[in-house]
Design a protein that fits this description.
Elements (H helix, E strand, L loop, with lengths): L4 E8 L2 E8 L4 E7 L17 H17 L5 E6 L5 H15 L4 E3 L1 H15 L3 H4 L4 E6 L4 E7 L2 E8 L3 H12 L5 H13 L3 H4 L6 E5 L2 H7 L6 E3 L2 H12 L3 H8 L6 H18 L3 E5 L3 H10 L3 H17 L4 H17 L1 H4 L3 H13 L11 H11 L7 H12 L11 H4 L3 H19 L8 E9 L2 E8 L4 H10 L1 H7 L2 E7 L3
């Protein structure tokens, strides 16, 4: 039995959960939750102050894993609003006290994996998303609204409306006003207002409420994942919650003394979102972010990879990137990556990062062609892609920065101060991208086919072209030094023109 079970431990700011699943069915064998962890008032993530409770629960989870003879498990933590320096401190303390290694996940990673679980596991997903499906995922610090059509992810928006954040505002307002709900509604509306132009064209949409326990409890039957929410019934419940005491909500919605504070913010956000979308049909799901982690660890990871690709394509379109050029560069860069596998020793995830960098390397032209590579970098840093970690997004941004005039060099302060974990991947991926980009310097896609061959200490690149490659040859010589420095290979371009 031990070989067919897998454990997942998930640390969130308000609780710690252990789930043991059967392989390969992903059937849940057991799930255990800690008591409520105290959420911070300034930062939601309050792990340092909860350290002893976290350690005690982790030690209990370790005993349960041994009882079930589970040898393989993963330990994930939600970063929420925790910065990476503090996260490293917390990780080190947990390692010392429990000998467990935690993998921190960004909101972008958690949301993407949660959406993947909805796509993979929720009944009627393809039917509901055939025309227009919005998924509202409410977290402690932020909320995400995602849009699906024809069964595929289209786009998503981050909204500063987490349940703990809204509750903190409510607590503050209660000290100065007797009607905080009305002010909070205005606050929520102001956070949603920027979406109005993007949502105006969508009619007759479905809305799925995700990761909200009280909604699942009220509308999803036991042992099911999906339940319909009659709009009139929701409005009655909403009015009741707005006017009820915390004790009433605790008694009727099976929440603890801390989580009761999330119920009103959830209903306020949901109500305003329904109004904004004018959703024709509303559903709730019992699927949670933990289900996404199960899919991420054990399920179909291509679902998340495709969301990342779609987000990159959306960004490229938004900033007017040259699609023909990026398609050419992507094809050649991935061909180079595959040919150099024994040398660079990077994995398939790095290949995906290179693919994404190729698609959005030139978005900085939207601001100014002069120094566009630097503009590309800070656009990417300001718009992290769904499904990627902070390091992944930083890697893509840095590769985009170094694809053109600048090269990562030890003498360059910017590169020198880059985190050690991403320095080499950035250099290796940027070196490949620079070579691929140089082969279409004219932006005319003159080269129809590329052949690669390693010979001694040279990489021979045979380019079959339908026109002269004078500009490409010049750009190739100008950009290939980084490739030689990183890989110890001299790239040589062999042009076969007129083909």
């Amino acid at each position: 039995m031990k070989n067919s079970l897998f454990g997942i431990i998930f640390l969130e700011p308000d609780r710690l959960t252990l789930r043991i699943v059967e392989l390969p069915t992903l059937k849940i064998i057991t799930e255990v939750q800690s008591g409520a962890l105290i959420v911070g008032s300034h930062n939601v993530a309050n792990y340092a102050q909860n350290m002893q409770a976290i350690v005690d629960n982790l030690q209990g989870f370790q005993r349960i894993l041994r009882e079930y003879q589970v040898e393989k498990f993963a330990f994930y933590g939600s970063l929420e609003d925790l910065n990476m320096v503090e996260a490293r401190y917390i990780a080190d303390q947990l390692k010392v006290r429990t000998d467990l290694n935690i993998e921190w996940l960004s909101n972008n990673q958690l949301m993407a994996s949660a959406l993947a679980a909805v796509m993979a596991q929720m009944p009627r997903f393809n039917e509901l998303s055939k025309k227009a499906l919005y998924i509202l995922t409410i977290g402690l610090n932020t909320t995400r609204l995602s849009y699906f059509r024809h069964g595929k992810f289209q786009t998503s928006w981050d909204i500063d409306l987490g349940e703990a954040r809204v509750n903190h505002l409510a607590q503050t307002l209660r000290q100065t006003t007797t009607t905080p709900s009305e002010i909070i509604l205005d606050y929520i509306s102001s956070k949603l207002e920027y979406l109005v132009p993007e949502l105006r064209h969508v009619k007759n949409s479905n809305l799925l409420i995700h990761n909200v326990g009280t909604m699942a409890q009220s509308y999803v039957k036991p042992d099911e994942m999906l339940g319909k929410v009659p709009r009139e019934d929701f409005e009655k419940r909403y009015q009741r919650i707005v006017s009820s005491s915390n004790q009433f909500i605790i008694n009727h919605y099976n929440v603890d003394e801390q989580s009761v504070n999330w119920v009103l913010p959830n209903y306020l956000v949901i109500s305003r979102t329904i109004h904004l979308l004018d959703a024709q049909r509303i559903y709730a799901t019992s699927l949670r972010i933990l289900d996404g982690l199960t899919i991420m660890q054990l399920g179909d990871r291509s679902l998340v990879a495709n969301m990342i690709r779609t987000s990159a394509a959306n960004m490229a379109q938004r900033y007017g990137a040259d699609t023909a050029h990026s398609t050419f560069v992507t094809r050649v860069a991935l061909q180079l990556f595959d040919a150099l596998q024994p040398i660079h020793r990077l994995d398939r995830h790095d290949r995906l990062l290179l693919e994404i960098a190729c698609k959005i390397e030139d978005i900085g032209n939207f601001i100014n062609p002069q120094g566009h590579y630097r503009h590309s970098q800070y656009i990417l840093e300001a718009n992290p892609l769904i499904g990627l970690s902070a390091d992944d997004n930083r890697t893509i941004a840095e590769v985009a920065r170094y694809h053109s005039s600048e090269s990562p060099d030890v003498a360059q302060a910017h590169y020198r101060h880059m985190d050690d974990d991403i320095q080499m991947p950035v250099a290796k991926l940027a070196a490949i991208l620079r070579v691929a980009d140089s082969l279409d310097d004219s932006r005319l896609q003159k080269i129809s086919r590329v052949e690669l061959r390693l010979q001694d200490e040279r990489l021979l690149i045979t380019a079959h072209a339908n026109d002269d490659l004078v500009l490409e040859k010049w750009a190739f010589q100008r950009k290939n030094q980084l490739f030689t420095d990183v890989y110890g290979l001299k790239p040589e371009l062999i042009a076969k023109e007129g083909e």
